[in-house]
Amino acid sequence: MNDADTIPAEIAGRWQSHVVLKQDVFSTVERGHFTTDAGTREAVLRRIDGVPWWTFGIALHFLKREANALERAGEFGIAPLLLFRGRRVLVRSWIDALPLHIAKPHGDAGYFRSAKRALRALHSVSITHNDLAKEQNWLRTPDGQARLTDFQLATRFSRRHGLCRLAAYEDLRHLLKHKRRYLPAELTATEKRILSRKSWPTRIWMATGKRVYYLVTRGLLNFTDREGGGPRLVNDAPVLTARLKSHPAVRDATIVAFPDRKTGTGLYAFVEAKGTTDATLMEFLNQGLIAAPERLQVVDALPRGGNNEIRGEILQLVAMNQIDLIDPLIANEAEKALVTRIVAGRQNLRDRFSF
Questions:
Q1: d(CA 253, CA 267)
Q2: Which of 156, 192, 217, 265 is most buried per CB count within 10 Å?
Q3: Could you tell me the pTM of the whole model?
């Protein structure tokens, strides 16, 4: 792939990249600033100029689908605005929000009302998203509103015919699956019926095409996207975590993924330990068969929820250096003090935010 610092000719002089958010065989996604006629604004670039030749046709198809959808969906304030559409790139506005798997809106009825309104607006202009089973494609703004992102699989229909209505039904069903996870007590009888009834194209897809899709993407391409983490989070992180926990000075450990300029996706290990150092544990990991994480931070304690589970959503934001988004997630003053210490010792210092 091309170096991420090589700006495509179509946007030369207008784009300044800050970090690679994601990189796979279908595109590279970067966060940065883009100059428009109205001024410079924070934005996201998707580029396919560096994808392998054997995926270029699919990548171009995905790029066109996203651009077609954002041309209209961005007008409603429920999705990014399309700022530039080129032959091999598109630039969309940045949305200051948390993905659902980090925001975890337990008991937040207002969020799911907003999410339903967003879907109604999208479907009213005959656009379906088609990839809303992924929590990372649902965003929650600081004021609790729902936004949608990643429209690569979206369809912009010419009119609201039967196929459009079936796709819209599946968008809604996937939203309700998230509501069932975070707000189960407020599912209505109608919503429960929708959850129990997949559309016929979905039933056919799950019985046939989905198996082939997994064979190709996960088997041949080794393409995984668990919460945006990629294959290293899926394949390497569990092995590295187990090795860390085998060290006598380590009480507990967890690993999250973060955008990395050099590798596309990096691993960040947070280690609860006493009597050891970051460097000592990195050397310990380097003796294994799997490459060590890009970042490792020893902490006196890991933040935990009421059920004693590690609060990975907070550590994810520390790893991504999105420190300004942490405060709404803090449960109490004791947790705030703990997280403040973790933030002060963070290893990923691309940007600096106040906390």
A1: 13
A2: 265
A3: 0.78
pLDDT of residue 321: 82
Q: How many Å separate Cα 66 from the centre of its chain?
A: 16
Give, rounded to a whole angstrom, the gap between the first and last alpha carbons of the chain: 36
pLDDT, the chain, mean: 88
- Contact between 286 and 300 under an 8 Å Cβ cutoff? The reply is no
Could you tell me the domains of the chain?
Answer: 9-93 (3.30.200.20), 98-220 (1.10.510), 226-344 (3.30.300.30)
CA distance 324 to 318: 10
Q: Where are any strands of DSSP class E within 218-354?
A: 250-260, 264-273, 295-299
Residues sharing a CB contact under 8 Å with residue 31, sequence separation 6 or more, in sequence order: 17, 18, 19, 21, 42, 43, 44, 45, 94, 259
Mean pLDDT of 281-304: 94
Distance CA 194, CA 180 (A): 12
